[in-house]
Fold this sequence. Notes:
The structure holds two protein chains of two kinds.
Chain A: E1 3-8, H1 16-29, E2 34-38, H2 46-49, H3 60-64, H4 70-73, E3 75-77, E4 81-87, H5 100-113, E5 116-120, H6 127-134, E6 138-143, H7 147-162, E7 169-175, H8 177-181, H9 188-195, E8 199-204, H10 207-215, H11 226-238, H12 252-261
Helix pairs in contact in A: 1-11, 5-6
Chain B: E1 6-11, E2 14-19, H1 25-38, E3 47-52, H2 59-71, E4 75-77, H3 87-91, H4 99-102, E5 105-108, E6 117-120, E7 123-126, E8 135-138, E9 142-148, E10 151-154, E11 164-169, E12 173-176, E13 179-182, E14 195-200, E15 203-208
Parallel strand pairs in B: 2-3, 3-4, 5-7, 6-8, 7-9, 8-10, 9-11, 10-12
Antiparallel strand pairs in B: 1-2, 11-14, 12-13, 14-15
Amino acid sequence: MGKVIVITSGKGGVGKTTTTANIGTGxxxxxxxxxxxxxxxxxxxxxxxxxxxxxxxxxxxHVVEGQCRLRQALIKDKQFGDRLVLLPAPQTREKxxxxxxxxxxxxxxxxxxxxxxxxxxxxGIEHGFKNAVAGADHAIVVTTPEIAAVxxxxxxxxxxxxxxxxxxxxxxxxVRPGMVRRGDMMSIGDIDDILAIEILGVVPDDQDIIxxxxxxxxxxxxxxxxxxxxxxxxxxxxxxxxxxxMNLEERKVMHWFKRLLSGEAQ
Amino acid sequence: MxxxxxxxxxxxxxxxxxxxxxxxxxxxxxxxxxxLIASESFFQGSTVKLLVxxxxxxxxxxxxxxxxxxxxxxxxxxxxPSWGLTAAAREAPVxxxxxxxxxxxxxxxxxxxxxxxxxxxxxxxxxxxxxPGAEVVCTGDILVLGSLRGVAHAGAEGKTDAxxxxxxxxxxxxxxxxxxxxxxxxxxxxxxGPEIARVVGDRIQLSVYNH
Lengths: 266, 211
């Protein structure tokens, strides 16, 4: 029996889809069988981030409406094949085309087959969120170190509790250690102080993310990327390994050199 | 218009329905209903007092008014407002003392998060935090054994001696009875220990809690 994890945030644009793609790929790289489900009906983009857009024939709605078999709709990953599959969201339909009950049924079926089912939730707290949460037994909340994002994360944690998803874990995305040091950005401590839930990982702000997203190759497979390292750590923690939080400052000097060489230092 | 016959206004005593002439009772009822419809659910959950400027309301007329007010989700407090007492208002039946209710205390053993609201008739003790975006409203005192960063309204029905206490008192907004104060726009140094807020004069004053 696999684990069904919903990845959610409340606020849009904090990196839910990137997080889902990277954790999924990271888990597959560690030998797990993973299924990614895009529940953002009408605004899908997990397929784009995974670089699988051109392979979509059937989607989640076709499956729940019985127009195709589940197996037909699952798209195999370019790198990991059978071990990492994607169930895309319909692009042309309304959000309320799927019901929470249908999602529960679907999750029951998927968890038989896969070790991890990761649900990429849409932004907001309406119908799409309720669908995403319906079949999950665990939640990961993504936030960035901004007051608005943290506020929405707090709201989401409350709503998750109401949906009987207790003890969600937190990923703090796009942290810029330099800004935190100067007091211009909320620190991990500030965020922990308000949300007070277990921190699953801290992901530094990294230009590699943009590059890899545009290429459709999750950054977690890039051994040189700092964000990739953070996602690899998160995947290992999900498998129960004790991995200490990455020291975001450790390559400060190297980083400074890099910036000097690339002419950004002034 | 009938609006002069009957008006709903907020005051330092809470919501007050002022009736200018009790003799035109039928018109008063229509006017009241019209105003309640216009206000939609704005007043829902609040308690209203009655002030009759001229004439007297019989107990059965009072009952009629209470029915209308209840239908719109409010409660009628038959105790007249403390100001502008008229002979007629003083004759209104006085309900049993409410002190019993005020001693009720709700113990909440969790953090109240953004978007969550807590309303209670009595005192509230939160063993956890009240986060920004959360709201605690009660008719008595509020004690937060943690950080209070959201909105707290103590003595919501006009109890000006209500207090708000927190281990870390950094609210977005504090209200005690009819007095409202908000956090200053510039950042303040974090409070070093437990603090207590109470109304002094017409302002809310924070002080370090000394036992």
